[in-house]
Amino acid sequence: GLHTWLRVSSCELLSDGSVHGYYRVGYDGRDFISFDLGSGRFVPADSVAEITRRRWEKEEVAEGFTNYLKHECPEWLQKYLGYREKELERK
């Protein structure tokens, strides 16, 4: 049958320059696994996701998530904020 895999990421650029963020994954409409940027660890929602957590930790997937949340996501955020500023100036 058909299955769904939903990924949601968020980053917040704070005034002191620090970044807060998260990365969450859902499977078939349920929470599956999330990535905690503060600890650099995966948090499985259940025992099935524990298998994925072990595999991702072994494959060092956390490095990619950390890079995305600390660097790529804030860069995109800054870019879109710049677009917003330009749009507001035109009005």
Structure description:
This protein is an alpha+beta fold and 91 residues long. The protein has one domain: MHC class I-like antigen recognition-like (Murine Class I Major Histocompatibility Complex, H2-DB, Chain A, domain 1, 2-Layer Sandwich). The protein has helices at residues 47-58, 61-90; strands at residues 5-13, 19-27, 30-36, 41-44. It has a four-stranded antiparallel beta sheet, covered by helices on one side. A hairpin with a 2-residue loop joins strand 2 (19-27) and strand 3 (30-36).
Task: Offer a concise description of the structure.
This protein is an alpha+beta fold. It is built from two helices and four strands, in the order E-E-E-E-H-H.
Layout of helices and strands:
Elements: E1 5-13, E2 19-27, E3 30-36, E4 41-44, H1 47-58, H2 61-90
InterPro entries: MHC_class-I_related, MHC_I-like_Ag-recog, MHC_I-like_Ag-recog_sf, MHC_I/II-like_Ag-recog, MHC_I_a_a1/a2
Pfam families: MHC_I (PF00129)
GO biological process, one term: immune response
